[in-house]
Write a structure and sequence with these properties.
The chain is α/β, with parallel strands linked by helices. It is built from 18 helices and six strands. A six-stranded mixed sheet has the order 2-3-1-4-5-6. It is globular. The chain starts with a helix and ends in a 10-residue tail after the last helix.
Amino acid sequence: VSTQSTWDSELQMSKTFLGVSFLVCVFVLSAAKVRLVIDTIRHGARTPLWIPSFFSNISWPTLGELTAIGERQHCLLGRLRRMQYIENNHLLPRSYDPNSIYVRSTDTRRTLMSAQSYLLGLYPTGLPQLNENQMRHVYDLLTPPINLDISKDIIMELKADAMPFSLPIIPIHSVNESVDTVLITGNCPIIQQKIISWFKEEEYKNLVKEKYKATFQEITTSYPEINEEYLLDRRNAYNLADFLICANRDGKRPYKLREQIIPQLRGFVADIQKHLFNNTELANKAQLSDYTKEVLRYMNATIKESTKVKYILFSGHDVTIVPILMAFMRMNNSIAFDKVPDFSSNVLFELNAPEGEESKLELNYVTVYYNGDVIYNQTYTQFHTAFYAQGDIGMPREQACKLPANLRPTNSLLNIVGIIEDFQKQWEDAQVSLTLHSY
């Protein structure tokens, strides 16, 4: 069975299951009002992170950067969200209101640029124009305090627009990746060491030798310099898959390889990520801990009507999206994914309530979409309990991610099993039942 057909069949099962759940509460949702949207996106199409030496004839000006295709993807996604939540649902005002939207990105150019592209689709125009009184004082008010001549013709090209084409400037918040524990792993050696150690295990080798044997055989047949030894080095195999996926999206796939191997390579990357984020419960929950709290914090504030924010955009990576999908796989066994989330994939949370009944906690519902398909639909109380549990490590994340003093993070293989078991014991001992809205 192909990766695509497996994914389609499992997704269809998911839709059937969720459709029944939806019908049960349709009397509530039929008149539902969208109260809050949290859209978590993967950056758009990018150039590869690395170019294998035997593909040196294929090049890009820079590596790991957003491409024009990636910009287009997120501009279109933002335009779709404008239709959904401005033109149709009227959740957001037609012009940008700084109190109603919050944007956060990882501290990487491709995620920051993806967020910018998305926002240009969401709010293609919207800055207020200069008034007549301001326009009379061209040099006094409209120019920077610099001792250089700025041509009046250049100034007047803008006419009454503050920016060319009335483009709005929307702030994007970010923190250094070493301390970003909401959208990526941050500096968590427990997670990082698990990743390093897993690539040394037989389970990874079996992906290359067994499950994806035919895929890699096609590559090694066309390029004899790529042998099994080369592929068993996880950096080589992972980067090779990434290179070919990116090259195919940018119209640069090597002519010797069929396009049909691209979904199989995406399946290979997905299998690696599923193992990494689901193999150890503590490591997985440490990865998701602060993200779940952030999502629930905004929903809780919306229900209590203590915030004006109605729309939140998180811009991250595949490693931002995958742990979220893994959480919903555990929350609902009919959900699965067989391909690494494609460029510009998104997980969108909607908080809904019947018009006029927003203050009643029991009537608030959460609907979650993955690339437009419903993957979860339950009451807020049910969602809060289930989703919080996916990131509940029973201790501060800093404590869970702290290695024993006698061990330091390293790229060499450590005996991680004892460390994980030790923290697993701490985690189980520290389990506490937190009441709803306890933070």
